Amino acid sequence: MPASPPGDKRRKRRLALVGGSLGNLVEWYDWFVYASFAIYFADSFFPGDNPTTQLMNTAGIFAVGFLMRPVGGWILGRAADRHGRKSALTLTVTMMSVAALLIAVAPTYGQAGYFGALVLLLARLLQGMSIGGEYAASATYLTEASARNRRGLGSSFQYVSMTCGQLLGLGILITLQHTLTTAQLESWGWRIPFLVGALFAVVVFWLRRRLQETDAFKEETASAPGEEAHDDSTRGTLKALWHYRRQAGLVMALTLGGTVAYYTYTTYLTKYLVGSAGMEKTTATLVSFTALTLFAVLQPFAGMLSDRIGRRPLLITFAVGCTVGTYPIMTALGSASSYWSALGLSLLALVIVTGYTSINAAVKAELFPTRVRALGVALPYAIANALFGGTAEYVALWFKNSGHEKMFFWYVSGCALISLVTYVLMPDTRNAALSRAEAEADGEREGEPERDRPAAAPAETAR
Question: With pLDDT > 90 as the criterion, what percentage of the chain qualifies?
Fold first, then answer.
């Protein structure tokens, strides 16, 4: 196949970056808007006089959505490895659109009893499946579509778009807080962002249908010159993933600390500032919005840094900072009395978390060969998120409700410590070859097709 002109390659990479990121933004907007608006619709589905109990119920449904992420990771990760990254990305956004619409029209407890909560639960399960596949498909797509020496930068846009999705939700929340009364928000205003999300997803479906497949996947599905057509029956299967079980274990361990810290300082932060620091809802929301805006700006710079110095230094910096800094930062946030003090502490925490978020997509994708890359990223990541990320908010509220809120801070530090050990022991993946062409350029192929060995050679030699 003739090589594309350099200018054409750059144009395709920019289009892939924009298309993959915008779709990811809408997916995560729909996912996070549930957490952002929970303080307004909790009593619509769960009656009672204890607001913490109501939030625990909605947080429980939020966590249940994570239980479907391994299922979605398996099904959609397999689809991405067998049928292409583009088809999986299109399917995930379709599922998310349906789920957002279900939440928007769900009846309240006063209208249909607990049937409304059941609709809410079903929608979150569908969202969980969608996000379970979205993370891996977008991580794989953005990493494969980037130039080899800019994969850290390219993959950093996953969390840029994730965070922008959350910012979009918070922006709509701030707008509604200033245009509607609290009673209106709690009565019907909370439905607006879910309707908006469903409409956004339709637009993104159209966009993703026009994305181009990555070169790495197209290479994997075609025979190399002089080779016979290879057997595709095991591509994207659990049997194929079993050969890379060590890498899958690494994904779970390196995700543990990062996902708990991320959800602590993003989705839980607003509730913590309201429930523990005693801030007004509008002030706490503005703190989160400003901190997340600056957090999104940081991601590409950290990604570029990892392209120069490697992935491990950033991961280790994150884990050390989170292990040592969580208790004092969260304690200080719990007594923050002003917008500026809360913002400064939130930014400090998110700067630390950036060491993980900016590059984790690239690191995970660089651990696996093309034939099982999406599934290898999706399934172990989704399991780690189901066990730890999705339950972080519920665990925090459970400790608070039992009168031992500060125990949660130690829980976050402990998770980060486990990941720290992983980062110290694992190899750096920056120089991994993600395709046959990259392996040939390194002189590493030596007659063996790249699809038959893990792309991240350092991970193999470190056994």
Answer: 33
